[in-house]
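Lab notebook, bench 4. Still working through the backlog of constructs that have no structural model yet. Next entry is a single chain of 400 residues. Request: give me the structure tokens for it.
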Amino acid sequence: MIDLSLTENHKAVQSLVREFCAREIAPVIGDHDRTATAIPDLIPKMANADILGACIPTEYGGSGMDYVAFGLACEEAEYVDTSARVILSVHTGLVSLPILTWGTNEQKKRLLPELVAARRIGAFGLTEPNAGSDVVGIRATADREGGGYRLNGEKMWISLADLADTFLVFAWTDRIRMEKRDHSGMSAFIVERSMPGVSTGTIKGKLGIRAGNTGSIVLQNVFVPNENILGDVGEGFKIAMFCLDQGRFTVAAGCAGLTRACLDACLKYCGSRRTFGRAIGEHQLVKEMLARMVAGWEVSRLLWLRAAWLKNAGQPNTRETSLAKWIAAETAERAAANAVQVHGAYGYSDEYPVERFFRNARGSSIYEGTREMHILIQADYVLGLRRDHPVRARLPEVAS
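Model written out:
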């Protein structure tokens, strides 16, 4: 029997994140978006509310929940603003979960409690100035030296770059394989800000997600000891693909929240705006736009819930996660564009939140793999040209 109802624990997480965001983010997000500044102490506040560790096992200080709970947290966070969801995507999805899945016992015990409590803030260092969706196009290198590796390179478009203490960085440990674009020559490293040679910078003038910190990481002869290698040498590409599955999942769930936010904003506006002697919501074409938002939200949620179910079961989910990300991102873009249309001229100003939604939504079809890349992924699966990579995504609490 198929049961799509949420458990009481899931509902509790949903309510917790919804109430937190309404209290701590909604009242101030407009001002921080206008000034392009992050909300001070937001990440520690999220930690204190037990949000950052929703899907981290209790032995590491988390709540021991599953991927459905994590998706609900992302949906509720992005309902208020994309920058809040990005924190969950990056700090939890792209740093904590990879360490939980690929880390040694020592790494997990040392790092996960710190990340859950936000005594450390994590960032993910894969994208470079000339390499985004083309993962094997990165040029960062890690040369063996003594009891570790010497890292050099630059990472770009890194969320939380200026706020982070710990970076999960990918680099080539085999230069011959790098030139051949052989992904088995890539490795993953846990880099600390305190290591000499690490510096970050802020990217300004972004179209959207202005209340979220985005920047660059520069690595100049950074020595990283062997104990900070995540997984085995040469497993970097596998780990990166695992990470991107987590990131795409969180984007899909977040975009569902953004679509719902657009719908609710339009419903509120339709209750007060009249044109041609009628409430604006009574016009047929406005009804159509609202109906498409409802359908889009329902479809997006069902897609990310299916991906969550597969993740909980430890089953392959790259295709399903990619599909959820692609469709949910396109849906959110369309919903935001229609939300501006419903608001008319008012939608073109920051007097109403739909202007911010519109700017934020545009990035969702670019990051975590472009829209075009996800279309190709789906086509390759249909044609039998792609097969799933090994799964290491089941959470310990779910497995038991």
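Notes after review: The first helix runs from residue 8 to 24. The longest strand covers residues 148-159. Flag for follow-up if needed.
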